[in-house]
Amino acid sequence: MISVLKRSKGFIMGFMCCAILTTTVAYAQDSTQIEVYFNDLKYMIDGVQKKPIVNQGFIHSGTTYVPLRFISEALGKEVSWDGETNTIWVGKKLGKTLLLSAMDYARVDGAAKNDYLTFDKWNGKDETKHRYGSEFTISGISYSHGLGIYLGEFSDGWGSVDYNLQGNYKQIYGYLGVDDFYRNSDAAGIVRIYGDGKEIYTSPTLKGGDEPLRIDVSLAGVLKLRIKFESNKKDDLDLVFTEAHLVQ
C-alpha cells in the first residue's frame, strides 16, 4: 500500500498529479512511470506546524513535491480546477482568459518592424525564430508563452505591438523582464502599455538578472491595446512580456 511504503516504484505521474489536487484517482493519457521516495515532511506555515489530512509529500529527482491544495488552503487560498482549459486556479479565479500571443496583432512599429519580434514558441505564430533557445527565461525561470523584442545598441531603441481588443477584455496580466541571454547587459529597459492612445501602465526599470515582475493592468473599455518596449541603448537587450493573458 502506498500509505505504508517509504519507497514506491513505477508510480504513475498522472495519478500523483491528480491526487495532489484532489482525492480522486485518475490517470493521465500520456503517463510516465517514475520512482519516488515518500518522506514524513513537516509543514511550517508562519512558524506554525500544519499537518495535511491526506497526500503525503514525496521527492523525485532531487525535487520535493507537496500537496498543492493543502499548502494553498494553509495559506488561506482557495484551489479550483478548470477542466475546459486544464488550469489550476490558486486564490482568486478570473474570467475566461486568452494568451496574448494567440491573438493576431494589428500592427508593429519601431524595431518590431525589423524582424526582431518574437512570439510564443509553441503555437506556430513565430515572426522570427527565437535565436537564443526555445523558451523565454527570466532570472532562471523558463516560460513557454509570451512576447519579446530584441533591442540592439544601435537599433531604434524601441518597438511596439498593437492589438484590436474592441472592448472585449477587462484586464491583462503577466510577467515582465529581461531574457537571461542578456542578463549581463549594461542596457536597461521599460515597458509601457497604452489603451486607446493613453498610457495606462509604465514599468519600473528592467535589467538583466532581475526577478520577473508580475503586472495586472485594467483594460476596461479599451478598443486598441499597444505594448511598447523601450531600451536606453547602452547595450543589447531582449525585453520580454511572458505568460501575457487577456481576461474577458
Name its key features.
248 residues, mainly beta, Jelly Rolls, six-stranded antiparallel sheet, five-stranded antiparallel sheet, globular, disordered N terminus
From the N-terminal CA to the C-terminal CA, the straight-line distance is 46 Å
What would CATH call the class of the largest domain? Mainly Beta
Mean pLDDT: 76
CATH level-3 fold name of the largest domain: Jelly Rolls
Secondary structural class = mainly beta
Q: What does the secondary structure layout of this molecule look like, with pairings?
A:
Layout: E1 7-12, H1 13-21, E2 33-38, E3 43-45, E4 48-50, E5 58-60, E6 63-65, H2 68-74, E7 79-82, E8 87-90, E9 97-99, E10 107-110, E11 117-119, E12 136-138, E13 141-143, E14 146-151, E15 158-164, E16 171-178, E17 189-195, E18 198-202, E19 213-218, E20 224-231, E21 237-247
Antiparallel strand pairs: 1-2, 2-5, 3-4, 5-6, 7-8, 9-21, 10-15, 11-14, 12-13, 14-21, 15-20, 16-19, 16-21, 17-18, 17-20
Structure description:
- The chain has two helices and 21 strands.
- The protein has two domains: 7-78, no CATH class; 97-247, Jelly Rolls (Sandwich), CATH 2.60.120.1060.
- Mean pLDDT is 76; it is low at 1-28 and 121-134.
- The protein has helices spanning 13-21, 68-74, and strands at 7-12, 33-38, 43-45, 48-50, 58-60, 63-65, 79-82, 87-90, 97-99, 107-110, 117-119, 136-138, 141-143, 146-151, 158-164, 171-178, 189-195, 198-202, 213-218, 224-231, 237-247.
- It has 248 residues and is mainly β.
- The strands form six sheets. Strands 9, 11, 14, 16, 19 and 21 form a six-stranded antiparallel sheet that branches. Strands 10-15-20-17-18 form a five-stranded antiparallel sheet, with no helix packed on it. Strands 1-2-5-6 form a four-stranded antiparallel sheet.
